[in-house]
Amino acid sequence: MNLGTILMLAVILLSAAELFFTGRGLVRKGEGDFIIAKRIYYVSAALLFVTVCHLLLLFLFDDFRYEYVFSNSSVHLPLVYKITALWAGQEGSFLVWALILAFVGIAVMRADAENAPMLMPCVIVTKILILVSLLVKSPFDFIWRVSPAMAGTLPVDGAGMNPLLQDPWMITHPPLLYLGYALSVVPFGYALVSLLKNNLSLITERAYPWVLASFTSLGLGIFMGGYWAYRVLGWGGYWGWDPVENSSLIPWLLVTALLHGILVQKRSLSLMKTNVVLSFLFFISVFLSFFLTRSGVLADFSVHSFGDYGLSLYLASYIVFFTAVSFFFFLVKSRRIAAAPLPPGPWNRLAFTASGILLMALFACFVLFGTLMPLLSGLFLRQQIAADSGFYNSVSMIVGPAILVAILCATMPLAHVKRFSTIVMALLSVALGALIIYRPPVQYGLAAVTIPGVFLVLQSLAAVLTNRSLAMLPSRLAHIGIALFMIGSVVTHLHSSSGQGRCIQGRETAVNGIPVTFLGLRGSTDSRLEFMVRRGESSEQIAMKYYFNERMNSIYREPQILGGIIDDIYIYPDDYRSGLEMATVGRVEKGKEALVGGVRIFFAGFDTAHMTSEAPTIRANLIVNGRRLSPALYLKRTSKSHSPVPIPGTERAVSLLDIDVSSRSIWVHISPDATVTIPPDSVIVNVTKKRLIWLVWLGTVLIACGGLMAFARSVQE
Amino acid sequence: MKKWTVFCVIAALLFLVIAAASFRDDVFSTYVPVRDAMQRAGEHVQVMGALDKATIAYERGGGYTFTVRDGEENEMRVYKEGIKPMNFEHADNVVLVGSYNRDRGLFVADKVLTKCPSRYAKGK
Known about the structure:
The structure holds 2 protein chains of 2 kinds. By secondary structure, chain A is an alpha+beta fold. Among the domains of chain A are: 1-159; 497-576 and 682-691, Tick-borne Encephalitis virus Glycoprotein, domain 1 (Sandwich), CATH 2.60.98; 581-670, no CATH class. Chain A is built from 21 helices and 20 strands. In chain A, the strands form 4 sheets. In chain A, strands 11, 12, 13, 14, 15 and 16 form a 6-stranded antiparallel beta sheet that branches. In chain A, a hairpin with a 5-residue loop joins strand 4 and strand 5. Chain A is globular, with a radius of gyration of 31 Å. Chain B has a single domain (26-123), classed as CATH 2.40.50.140. Chains A and B meet through helix 14, strand 1, helix 15, strand 2 and strand 7 of A and helix 1, strand 1, strand 2, strand 6 and helix 3 of B.
């Protein structure tokens, strides 16, 4: 057992003690017990902080005895990424989650001393459960415990961090998500306490700022993940309906529904029970997300390479536990609660908000259904069926416009409907909405998104300009944001164009209408492909990462984005070919003849003498220009080497570069002589024009701004 | 909100979603082996196969092609638009979502998921 494990055990024991004293205090109604529990809580939070610092130090001092450090860091990793490596993997991010949760607990105690004794057990139990799962899959496991083959060796360097994660957006994306997840325990706690105290106004009075904070941090976290995918992954999109993405969207949809539920409850004392249920579902959906993404049940349906971390049973039991607790108290206690009905009326704005809540909850159900589809179909149809993007797009095409209409009806007073300005805005929206989707073959269905979307933007902007009161500003901003986001998605989907071509070094080639000149591959270890891109009168030189990454065991490459008001020009390279290599290197299959560097080579087979020695040697039996030659490949522990064999009658030599056993072929090199012409280098380039994609980013930023402003105001209140 | 209103909203939404989905053929995909994918031409399916790395090639008009195999000597040529995913050459198995086009003799994939052995798994 090492220091890290001892620290984690100590935190678990202290947390159990907190739980004990809090429980005893609640039973005996003794203030003394609460004070003890509070003090223990501070000590355990401090110890958890020390645990995280300990892990951080292991990263900073390159202690590769620890499997987690070995797998996520290396000696030459920049300092900032050694820090963020803390949450680069599952174990570390769970530890960070537990720490954030501990801090949330402190904030809860300070913000609401009256209800803290009843709230804290929720925080403590959640913290204990996370820490228990950390004991199963610990960031403090020694490397030889995880991989017995490594016993007796001390790695001098780590495997390195996945280069995809070495991006500024990845520094903040995970902690923000975990902050949002950790905060979900507060509305959950308030929902339970309000049932126990028969006082459902606690949710509106106390939980609201926490819900806003969770809504904003989760939203920002998801947005940063999407933006990172766009910038780094190279497929040009920001959302792929992958299980990992869906599992963060579901809690966000539920917290958004809860946020609006609280607003309705504040104004009319209705939807009380709905809000309790939404608080429960929001919290449980966080664990469900972890179950879906960390248990490996959907591993075949995701691009993310997560597998079974041995936590499935734990996570599943947590879900069952929290669901049972929530619904037990709800069924026992909720009958005594008499919530007011929604106020009647033909144009009832609160009823429209309630419809919006229902729509968001249903959207979450659809996304969950799609994500669970492979499991459900496997269980009931005995055949695995996955929901494809077409499923999610169909759902979004219906629920999205319905939400926009619900927002419009909920935010626009009835008196405004017949105003001349409203009619003008409506006509303008129809014209603009139709113009946006005009691209043959016209997909008329998309007008359902663009027309109400444009109308919502215009109407909200008009409201912001005419009514200067700050009270409505956050919600107006967020609503403009969601409309812009939806319009932006439609525009980008409809009006983007893509093209592909091979660029020859030094020659200007038009790819998708953009003149691109490939300048060459520069640099050695961190090599880059350099291009000159012409846009109108001006030219811009760009460089894109393109190098062999040991950790991924493949070429690492990054796209380059040239931002613009109309279009983002998104450039992604692949398949760089060195002219020298093309003229001198080739693949020959066993029993076949091939032309390599102008020389005919027949590959008869391998001669695997000395294969059992320390440094095995492989020889390829070749017939080159009618002569038998056997160049050798020397396999050493960490590298390969070869020696050229002269081809008689020429000034050239043949070397065996590599073998590929699966296709029974070899790679050979023929050294060039004066007669060989070396062709120029070339590379495949994909150029996509992303139309108005900034609308999508602007939309998400406005939603986050609305959330932040509302949060700041609710804290002041 | 009255119960029947909630019921009506849910029913209307379900109806509309089903109606919207019925216009598309990429809503659901069944997980099938390579041979079935070729037999069920035109049907949107999900198929896993071993990637033959020697067959990966970019097409002149854009996109790339490659061959996948199952354990029973069935092989299928696959076409995908755009640029290869980053760790494609490294993948042993690939999961393809799309449909087989009998006229072109190709499986036209709209999604390619790569399954890579981690550096660690190799050492084990």
